[in-house]
Design brief:
The chain is an alpha+beta fold. It has helices spanning about 5-25, 45-55, 60, 85-95, 110-125, 140-145, 175-185, 255-270, and strands at about 155, 160, 195-200, 205-215, 220-225, 230-235, 240-245. Bound molecules: heme C (2 copies). The site of one heme C has 24 residues, from helix 7 and helix 8.
Length: about 280
């Protein structure tokens, strides 16, 4: 008997078995599982179809122009969305609803294509810069960004700038002009945990503050304002404090209203692609 044939038989069996499992899993999900392949339904016609469907099925809660309806409780969909930051996220909210709220799933017989057209319509409310008229001038804003405003000391745009704040190369995509103004005038309002800082008093009694770069049971690493890395052994840390405020200064009063408008126009123009109409 040839012993060597046994493993190959076994691996063949495994291969068949896993092919079976994959086929089975695919059968369980008749609707597309919304992979991030991009929205294939985002032509001007799709957007128009999505809008029509929206007006019929969604506007009673979200308002005719999707800016929200306080009485019915449907939120404004033209700004940053709470439950979804990507097209796939929006798709899933519409397909599955938001559990425990009035936002019910669309009927199961509504085809995925229709849901994608709704996504395209909702995107167009935020992503289409040509439909938004801004007071500011994006070119002047770009000069302020790298010049007087010194935003590049912390922010990167298309590979140039600092690392002490988020990369803003695509910041216009999921923010309204109002969001962008608030980010500059009231930076503490919404700070993602990634940008919280910690204040650590080490064994030398010296206090250092910075972004948390790494932490395990024994050690903590932070990066301070000058991009120096500091490591602390936890057993030697005398004091440790989390600061949820932003390290970004407010530009309210620091820059004039028209300068802020120019920066908003510039930031709003920062996006990967502009929807072709
Ligand atoms: C009966 C009222 C109602 C109808 C009809 C309705 N919605 Fe909603 N929708 C809501 C509510 C309420 C929420 C907020 C849920 C929550 O609290 O997170 C919501 C949330 C959403 C969100 C997420 C918003 C966010 O900020 O994350 C999207 C997107 C959305 N709805 C799209 C639609 C679309 C598209 C339709 C039509 C197919 C629709 N809704 C129909 C009530 C409704
Ligand atoms: C000292 C560093 C620093 C400077 C200078 C700075 N920022 Fe920021 N900025 C940050 C940090 C950190 C965050 C993230 C925390 C927060 O949301 O405030 C941030 C957030 C932002 C956001 C929101 C980003 C998002 O993902 O929502 C915008 C927009 C922004 N900054 C624009 C600017 C502009 C425009 C300037 C110049 C006028 C500027 N920043 C100057 C550090 C800085």
């Amino acid at each position: 008997m040839k012993v060597s044939s046994i493993p190959s038989l076994r691996s063949k069996l495994l291969a068949t078995l896993s092919a079976f499992v994959i086929a089975g899993a695919m059968q369980l999900t008749p609707h597309s599982t919304a992979e991030d392949a991009g929205n294939l339904y985002n032509t001007a016609v799709d957007i128009r179809m999505g809008e029509r469907y929206f007006e019929r099925q969604c506007s009673r809660c979200h308002g005719f122009d999707a800016t929200g309806n306080d009485e019915a409780g449907g939120p404004n969909l033209t700004g940053r969305l709470r439950n979804a930051s990507t097209d796939v996220g929006i798709f899933n909210v519409i397909r599955n609803g938001v559990q425990g709220t009035a936002m019910l799933p669309v009927a199961p017989d509504v085809p995925d294509a229709t849901v994608w057209q709704l996504v395209a319509y909702i995107d167009s409310l935020r992503y289409d810069p040509s439909s938004v008229v801004l007071d500011g001038d994006a070119d002047r804003g770009a000069s302020l960004f790298t010049g007087k405003g010194d935003c590049t000391s912390c922010h990167m745009v298309n590979g140039a700038g600092g690392r002490m704040g988020p990369d803003l190369s695509r910041i216009g995509e999921d923010n309204t002009p109002e969001d962008l103004l608030i980010a500059m005038t009231n930076p503490h309002e919404e700070v993602a945990p990634r940008w919280w800082t910690v204040r650590v008093t080490g064994p030398d009694g010296e206090q250092r503050e910075g972004f948390r770069m790494g932490e395990d049971s024994f050690a903590l690493r932070i990066m301070d304002q000058d991009e120096n890395l500091w490591s602390f052994r936890k057993s030697q840390v005398q004091n440790y404090q989390r600061v949820e405020a932003s390290t970004m200064p407010s530009y309210e009063g620091e820059l004039s209203d028209s300068e802020l408008d120019d920066l908003v126009a510039y930031l709003f123009s920062l996006r990967r692609e502009v929807l072709s109409q």
